[in-house]
Specification:
The complex is a heterodimer. Chain A is of the alpha/beta class. The longest helix of chain B is centred in the N-terminal third of the chain and has 23 residues, at about 165-185. Classes of the chains: A alpha/beta, B alpha/beta. Chain B: Pfam families: RecA-like_ORC2, WHD_ORC2.
């Protein structure tokens, strides 16, 4: 402890054997932290799964942004080619990218933009963040340095050495050096041998966080650039988080007139989030599944706190880390084809902990006595059952996710938006409780019964698309599942229908219903034809304004039984089928045996780590120390009462909450002393130096915590900083 | 101090509602006529609703057709209610504190002895709840009593003398029975917070109206008593402060040790979290130095570590960077640009495949509270090979980080409440009670002074005297070197200018004196210490 306490130093270094011999060890040494966990089996699985998720994320990321980025690239390419002729004097072409408020995500977006620009447009790109540009000088230096040296860092090492041109010192980088460098590089080179450099490459300057820049600096910067534009083909790219008006607001006319602005819109972040969730985490191929509550928590954090996709991915990663941590059982939470091997790797202790899972009990109760004993005594038998059950769980996942998707398709357009629109909302509902039993589901089905033919056909077609695509995914898995199982499992009751059969059944039913509904089209209004004639007659009457007749007619209409058209009949049969089908497919995960292995359920564990509550913790600790200390002495009748056994800070805190904006130190001390030793005379209480010291310390700590501060308004008073 | 103002003060504080209303009537009427557009909406917000309403606005652009969504999983039942922390009290009077104490020490007395004077009960009852007539009656009575206020509490204090044993016993019995219930609930999971906060009485429920806020903050007058600490006779804490150990009762000591023990079990977990490129932040009351120190001792013996005391008053972010870039990585100098530094650290750590651990005690310390320091820390912590463990204490610490900094830090939050005293953290601070005494400066000044030669002391005294005389001037530039030379010569302290300069270097090294060059090129000497302190110093040394 003493080693880090000093009155003259605030930073202490513990090299702990770090040597600066960089090239000494070439062999890839694993970092110390990883080496602790590396031998653990669960860590290995976790690492593998997370890496694969990260890969998928990367792919998805590129896919989602590709359209937008390509647009920008096209613009960047074209801007100096065609406009060469009609280039007005001193006008800079610029792209404005409206990115949205989720700033943490932009880093990735701009990274991929830079990558694309380097590939396709030019090797001279500079990206300057606001923190690197506190003054105009820094801004120019940074930009110019990056433009000149930027291509080196991308190109391979050897060309880096080969080029070895006089490296500019950063402090000497000005616009003038840039223009000299540029004219040397291109104007001179284009005449002699090097043909490929004849095309002048543009210079792209990216300003990712426009709002956090100082406007004056940017204004000056734009003006400077505009004076160089005739010699240097510069393009600006602004990343704007709010709206285009921000650009106009911070640039006065004489500046904005130098810019040729083209605006690009990027996706709102919640769409991207939905994509990430739907394509990566809410699929049956994902190695790890979130329970409904967990997903709700994470999406709430996204929607109500940070709006950042990076954030939600990190939170999911945290959940996954928590899921796997120090639990060998979770090695089973892996790809389906690896389950068999992993089950064999489990030690008997791991098996024991699996036996203790809550979801194992209902499974156990159905079995007969012999099997029960076998399950407990014989590890190998248990392993087999485990394998079988896990495969069943995967089958279940497959049909579950498909059913959720189908449900989503059918109820997406239903009015009132009862269950939510996006897959994640419906998933969260389905995964928490048995959705078929809920009122929301019943209401949805009611609405489905009123849906028009066109709509229904449309949604059935969509559903068929989903079914087909998911059937394609499963086919490669199929041979693996049919690996011969041992035959001594006959006495275990297993419902043998596989998910694939289930899905195929759905497909057949959907197709027949589709055909029937489509055909029912013409027959539907046959019955109603004569009715319509009557209606027409009465409509004429109504125009004369006979209210009585209308009433009568309506009364009559209620009495006449509505004759169902064929379409209506088919529709109600279809809805009944849907109810039955969802009833089978949408059983919530917690009804499944061993669901704990694949589903992350312990939300309360991670909640505090994901959203910290420092203020709440302080308040709880101060107003009720027993919460933390678990002591016998500080038993308080209410959260506000005080007692002498409380820790000093806590006592002082409670007393200070009774005061207004200003606190008289003397009175405070008196009150403090009175609580501590109620028996003494008032005059003498506070004179005990021991109490004074304790009080002083408590006050100092409260000040340190930010509850009070000194006040010069009145002698010996402090100001309260909270209400 | 005359007793007259105190009367007024008491009246206003006790019946403030009325007085303020009366004074402000015309103004408030006028205000209502021009009431702001959103006034109505504002009024409707009872504190209960605030939670959801506050979030609604942020969500408008998300789904327009949908009825406004509400967070489903964010708020659990074991959360601390915001109202509990942030509630307005209707009106703080100077008697509140008094009442509280009475409640704490006197309540058994009230129950048991019929001797308790009636007026005490009146004082205890809630002011807001009393009807006007009673209030007026009370007011008159209180005016009478106020003068003998101290007598009152004396009385109650001594009255509790009569029956201390009985009341103690009773409270003990009741508390122990409650204990059993409590512990039965909380025992199995010691680290999980029990829900004791929810048991609070609901009678303190209070509807926040905007008027109330302005009423609280409008009166410039401070409605507290005029007592000062000067009333205490033995107010020299400086000596006793150092000797006295921190007071922690025995049971609490044991429980705190248990708590800390339980945190030690988290260390492996922390390593795991850190290794996955999360950073760790620990919060909760009590000094967390020892926990983090233990973590370092146990787990980080073989890796380079940088420990930063954020509470250190002259810490600069530059010194942190220097420690990493120069001392650890062995570079000769620090690049000027922040992004260069970060890339340099990144590259070097990557090359040597080492992990660097940053342990920051009090990341919310005064010197780290600027956005520049935080953004530097954020971008360093973001690096793959740097792992940060930081502690925060200040209640508003989370305000330090904006969106992008938070995402760079990628924190996982851990509640590490220790209840340990902040001895090191507050040792630099001038406590409110020890009164900006500058004891530290004074003592260091003294110890340097004592090691000086008599001639040097004379020179130093000359500078002090000059400064004390002339500091009142608005543009005090310091003592010109020439003047000091002539003064010193007069007193035969030095014989040449060179000798004087040699003496001065001593002061300069200890930063007792600063040299300031004026525009005309002459050198001026300034002592960078408060004049009051200097005065004190002179008095003690002559």
């Amino acid at each position: 402890m003493e080693s880090t306490t000093s009155v003259s130093k605030g930073v202490f270094l513990f090299p702990n054997g770090y040597t600066n011999l960089k090239r000494a060890k070439k062999n890839p040494r694993k970092t110390m932290v990883q080496s602790i966990f590396l031998k653990e089996r669960w860590y290995e699985i976790f690492k593998r799964n997370w890496d694969s998720i990260e890969e998928q994320l990367q792919e998805l990321h590129e896919k989602t942004y590709s359209v937008l980025l390509n647009d920008i690239i096209c613009y960047l390419k074209s801007s100096y080619q065609e406009s060469e002729v009609n280039n007005l004097e001193g006008i800079i072409p610029s792209a404005t990218l409206l990115t949205g408020v989720n700033q943490p995500d932009h880093v990735n977006q701009f990274k991929s933009l830079i990558g694309l620009i380097r590939e396709e447009v030019t090797s001279h790109v500079a990206m300057v963040n606001s923190q690197d540009a506190s003054t105009l000088k820094h801004l120019v230096e940074n930009t110019v340095w990056q433009l000149i040296n930027g291509d080196n860092s991308v190109e391979s090492e050897e060309s880096y050495d080969e080029m070895s041109k006089p490296k500019f010192k950063k402090s000497r980088c000005t616009m003038k050096t840039l223009s000299n460098w540029y004219s040397n590089k291109y104007n001179d080179e284009c005449s002699p041998k090097k043909k490929r450099h004849t095309k002048r490459q543009t210079l792209v300057i990216i300003i990712p966080d426009f709002e956090s820049f100082n406007c004056n600096i940017l204004q000056d910067f734009v003006m400077i650039i505009s004076s160089y534009v005739s010699t240097l083909p510069i393009i600006l790219v602004f990343g704007v988080a709010t709206s285009v008006s921000a650009l106009h607001k911070s640039f006065p006319y004489h500046v904005s007139s130098k810019l040729l602005i083209k605006v690009f819109n990027s996706h709102p972040s919640h769409i991207y989030m939905n994509q990430v969730l739907e394509n990566i985490f809410l699929t049956h191929t994902a190695p790890f599944h979130l329970s409904g509550k967990a997903l709700e928590l994470l999406t709430d954090v996204f929607l109500f706190y940070d709006f950042s996709v990076t954030g939600i991915i990190q939170s999911i990663k945290y959940c996954m880390m928590d899921h796997y941590y120090a639990d060998n059982m979770k090695t089973l939470c892996c790809e389906r084809d690896k389950i068999d091997a992993e089950v064999m790797n489990l030690s008997s202790e791991d098996l024991e902990s699996i036996r203790r899972l809550m979801s194992f009990r209902p499974f156990l109760e159905v079995q007969d006595c012999e099997t029960k004993i076998g399950l407990f005594e014989d590890d190998n038998f248990f392993r087999e059952i485990l394998q079988k059950e896990l495969h069943k769980l995967h089958e279940y996942l497959y049909s579950f996710y498909l059913s959720v998707k189908l449900l989503c398709v059918f109820i997406r357009d239903i009015p009132k938006n009862i269950m939510g629109k996006s897959l994640r909302e419906i998933y969260a509902k389905c995964a928490t409780d048995n959705i078929v039993k809920t009122d929301g589901f019943k209401e949805c089905m009611q609405f489905l019964k009123f849906q028009s033919q066109v709509k229904l056909v449309e949604s059935i077609q969509n559903a068929l698309k989903i079914v087909n695509s998911s059937l394609q995914i499963t086919t490669p898995v199929k041979p693996l599942r049919t690996t011969p199982m041992k035959n001594n499992l006959n006495n275990i009751s297993l419902n043998s229908d596989t998910a694939e059969d289930f899905v195929k059944g759905i497909k057949i039913y959907l197709m027949t219903f589709l055909r029937q509904i489509e055909k029912a089209n013409t027959d539907a209004d046959l019955n109603g034809k004569d009715m319509e004639d009557d209606d027409d007659m009465e409509n004429v009457d109504l125009k004369s304004g006979n209210r009585y007749k209308l009433k009568e007619k309506l009364l009559k209409a209620t009495r006449v039984d509505k004759i169902q058209s064929e379409f209506e009949m088919v529709r109600s049969r279809f809805v009944i089928y849907l109810e039955e089908m969802f009833g089978r497919g949408l059983l919530p995960p917690h009804t499944q045996t061993f669901h704990e292995i694949l589903f992350f359920t312990e939300v309360s564990n991670v909640k505090k780590q994901i959203i910290g509550a420092p203020r709440g913790a302080l308040h709880v600790a101060l107003s009720n120390p027993q919460c933390y200390l678990q002591c016998q002495c500080c038993n308080l009748s209410s959260a506000e009462s005080v007692s002498e056994t409380l820790p000093d800070v806590s006592l002082a805190y409670k007393l200070h909450r009774e005061c207004g904006k200003h606190i008289n130190l003397y009175d405070w001390l008196q009150a403090f002393a009175a609580v501590l030793c109620p028996t003494e005379e008032e005059e003498n209480r506070a004179h005990d130096p021991m109490i004074q010291v304790r009080f002083t310390r408590a006050v100092a700590e409260l000040q340190f915590l930010g509850f009070i501060k000194t006040s010069k308004r009145k002698t010996d008073h402090v100001m309260r900083l909270t209400w | 101090m005359s007793s007259q103002p105190r009367f007024n003060c008491a009246v206003e504080s006790d019946d403030s509602q009325e007085v303020v209303n009366f004074e402000n009537t015309p103004r408030r009427n006028a205000r209502q006529r021009h009431k702001p557009k959103r006034y109505g909406e504002f009024l409707e917000l009872s504190p209960r609703k605030r939670k959801t309403v506050a979030y609604d606005s942020s969500d408008e652009d998300f789904d327009v057709t949908e009825s406004v969504p509400k967070p489903k999983a964010l708020f659990g039942s074991d959360d601390v209610e915001g109202q509990d922390i942030f509630k307005f009290k209707s009106r703080h009077t100077k008697l509140d504190l008094h009442n509280k104490v009475k409640e704490a020490i006197g309540s058994p007395v009230v129950l048991n002895s019929p001797k308790t004077p009636k007026r005490n009960i009146h004082l205890l009852s809630k002011v807001e709840a009393t009807p006007k007539q009673v209030n007026n009656l009370l007011k008159k009575r209180i005016i009478k009593e106020v003068d003998s206020e101290s007598g009152d509490s004396d009385f109650s204090g001594s009255s509790s003398d009569f029956v201390p044993d009985k009341s103690d016993e009773e409270s003990n019995v009741s508390s122990s029975s409650e204990d059993e219930v409590e512990t039965a609930v909380t025992q199995p999971t010691p680290t999980v917070r029990s829900r004791n906060t929810r048991m609070k009485l609901k009678d303190s429920e209070y509807i926040v109206t905007p008027d109330n806020y302005f009423m609280m903050n409008s009166s410039k007058k401070i409605t507290t008593s005029d007592h000062t600490l000067a009333r205490l006779k033995n107010m020299n804490l400086n000596e006793s402060m150092k000797e006295a150990d921190v007071h922690i009762s025995k049971e609490h000591g044991m429980k705190i040790a248990d708590l800390i023990q339980s945190y030690a079990q988290l260390f492996d977990r922390w390593l795991y979290v850190l290794s996955e490129n999360f950073n760790i932040i620990v919060y909760g009351i009590g000094s967390k130095r020892s926990v983090l120190h233990k973590f370092q001792q146990e787990k980080l013996q073989n890796v380079p570590c940088v420990v930063i005391n954020g509470y250190f008053p002259s810490l600069t972010i530059k010194s942190v960077l220097e420690a990493i870039v120069i001392d650890l990585l062995g570079n000769s100098q620090l690049p000027t640009n922040m992004s260069d530094i970060v890339t340099l650290i990144d590259n070097q750590l990557r090359d040597s495949e080492t992990d660097l651990f940053l342990i920051i005690h009090n990341m919310d310390g005064t010197m780290l509270r600027n956005s520049k320091a935080q953004s530097v820390l954020a971008s360093i912590s973001q690096l793959k090979n740097v792992h940060t463990i930081a502690s925060i204490d200040h209640i508003n610490a989370p305000l330090l980080w904006d969106h992008s900094k938070l995402s760079k830090f990628n924190f996982s939050w851990w509640d590490v409440t220790t209840f340990l005293p902040y001895t090191d953290e507050t040792s630099y601070e001038n406590s409110l009670m020890t009164q900006r005494s500058g004891a530290l400066q004074l003592s260091s000044l003294k110890s340097v002074y004592q090691s000086l030669t008599t001639n040097a002391r004379g020179i130093f005294n000359a500078i002090i005297e000059y400064q004390l005389e002339n500091q009142k001037q608005s543009h005090y530039q310091g003592l010109p070197f020439k003047d000091l030379y002539s003064k010193s010569r007069e007193q035969f302290l030095v014989s040449s200018e060179l000798a004087l300069r040699a003496q001065l270097t001593e002061f300069l090294d200890h930063k007792l004196v600063r040299i300031k060059r004026t525009l005309d090129g002459s050198e001026n000497l300034i002592i960078p210490i408060d004049s009051i302190l200097l005065q004190q110093f002179l008095e003690q040394n002559t």
